[in-house]
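Quick one, tokens below:
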């Protein structure tokens, strides 16, 4: 049951990440195309300037310019927003609205330029609308639905208009454009699926790597850091505390008579004790502290910004909490703890833990179930 729930959660997380990846690609791909669509309209108007009504041109370019400005503002706002806010839930609908608005204005404007008595203008307008459709494939490749809607709003009005004209030339231009649109729509499905597969594989590989890294640093029994991971993080924390002149203390903990528990009640009982001790230690650790199982029944904690006196208090609280644990075999569990604090400037984290380890041996030699200071 747990494995099934984990797989569902992992799939949902990857789905959300893939959706976010698609959104990021969409915004990156359309940075230059937003202005490009307006410049294409300006160029088409310039080519047709001497053959069409100038009021019609301005009546097209003005709303198109406004929609372009709106899309530019959307892009700027997106890239200025924090990365955590760049989510599909926040931006997809906004992008859809600006896209539909701009494509509708483009398609209707191009249709308005069509003149039934001017074959040259018809050819120019159709050429530009086909070009806009091609650019839509590259701009919205991550979103097949956007590609289809964009092509439909920009190319279809002019193509259908030509299709219902009387001349064979117009019909001859319309049919290839419609065939082209059908091929593009088919190709976008494959492209979109391929891109989503690539995004998904990338995210799945990242998750697999994270799981492997986590497994390599985690003690399988207790879920705490293993020896290697503990020392790796402890060295970084120690160096950071030393630079910032923060007091750092270390605790070394050993379960009393652990071998007797294993010998008397079996390794399952011993494993239960280790797991319970791991939970207690993890709950004792504060933010910034490092804790781990070094091996066998030995645990260690590195306490950041903690003096020797404060560390002794926390060690005693930890020891008393352990002594109150209830196990299936009914035997009282106790632990001995050694406490040390950062000393000379040249001291290393290994030296600090060695001091705590010496104090631990003294605590065990003095009768166990007690805390000793280095």
């Amino acid at each position: 049951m747990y494995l099934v729930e984990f797989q569902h959660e992992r799939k949902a997380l990857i789905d959300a990440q893939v959706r976010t990846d698609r959104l990021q690609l969409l915004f990156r791909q359309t940075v230059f195309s937003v202005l490009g669509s307006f410049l294409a309209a300006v160029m088409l108007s310039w080519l047709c300037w001497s053959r069409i009504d100038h009021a019609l041109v301005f009546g097209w370019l003005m709303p198109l310019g406004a929609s372009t400005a709106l899309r530019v503002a959307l892009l700027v706002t997106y890239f200025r927003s924090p990365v955590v806010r760049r989510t599909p839930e926040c931006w997809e609908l906004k992008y859809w609205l600006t896209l539909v608005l701009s494509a509708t204005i483009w398609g209707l404007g191009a249709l308005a330029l069509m003149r039934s008595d001017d074959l040259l203008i018809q050819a120019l307008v159709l050429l530009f609308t086909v070009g806009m459709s091609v650019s839509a494939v590259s701009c919205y490749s991550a979103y097949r639905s956007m590609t289809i809607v964009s092509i439909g709003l920009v190319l279809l009005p002019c193509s259908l208009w030509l299709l219902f004209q009387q001349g064979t030339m117009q019909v001859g231009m319309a049919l290839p454009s419609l065939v082209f649109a059908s091929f593009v729509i088919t190709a976008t499905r494959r492209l979109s699926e391929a891109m989503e597969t690539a995004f998904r594989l990338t995210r799945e590989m990242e998750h697999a790597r994270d799981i492997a890294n986590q497994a390599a640093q985690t003690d399988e029994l207790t879920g705490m850091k293993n020896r290697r991971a503990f020392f790796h993080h402890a060295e970084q924390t120690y160096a950071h505390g030393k630079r910032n002149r923060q007091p750092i203390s270390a605790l070394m903990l050993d379960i009393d008579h652990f071998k007797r528990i294993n010998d008397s009640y079996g390794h399952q009982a011993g494993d239960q004790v280790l797991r319970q001790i791991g939970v207690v230690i993890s709950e004792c650790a504060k933010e910034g502290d490092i804790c781990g199982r070094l091996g066998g029944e030995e645990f260690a904690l590195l306490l950041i910004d903690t003096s020797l006196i404060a560390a002794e208090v926390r060690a005693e609280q930890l020891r008393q909490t352990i002594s109150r644990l209830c196990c299936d075999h009914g035997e009282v569990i106790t632990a001995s703890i050694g406490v040390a604090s950062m000393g000379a400037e040249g001291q290393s984290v290994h030296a600090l833990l060695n001091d705590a380890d010496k104090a631990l041996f003294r605590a065990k030699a003095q009768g166990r179930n007690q805390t000793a200071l280095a």
